[in-house]
Design brief:
about 10% strand, 3 helices, 2 strands, alpha+beta
Length: about 80
C-alpha cells in the first residue's frame, strides 16, 4: 500500500472517528503527517523490541498524542 492510499484510508477512518463527514484533508494534515508513518513502513506501530528469544510488541491503536490532533473536529451525535 502506498502512502497516498494510506492517506485516503486514514481520512475516511478519521471522518468516522470524529463523526464528522465535513472535515477536510487540509484540516487533517497534522494528523496525517503523524498517522501515515505510524500505520506503515518497515516497522509500523512497533512499541518495543527484545533481542533474547526475539520479541516485538505492536501498538494496536494510535497513541493519544496522535488522536489528540483530531479532537477539534469531533462532533457529538445525539440519539
Amino acid at each position: 500500500m502506498t502512502d497516498q492510499e494510506r492517506r485516503i484510508r486514514l481520512i475516511e477512518w478519521a471522518k468516522g472517528y470524529c463523526q464528522n463527514d465535513e472535515v477536510t484533508e487540509e484540516e487533517l494534515e497534522l494528523f496525517l503527517e503523524q498517522a501515515v508513518p505510524f500505520s506503515g513502513g518497515i516497522a509500523p506501530g512497533v512499541q518495543s523490541y527484545s533481542l533474547g528469544d526475539y520479541s516485538v510488541s505492536y501498538l494496536t491503536n494510535f497513541p493519544d498524542h496522535i488522536l489528540s490532533l483530531l479532537r477539534p473536529y469531533k462532533k457529538i451525535k445525539f440519539g
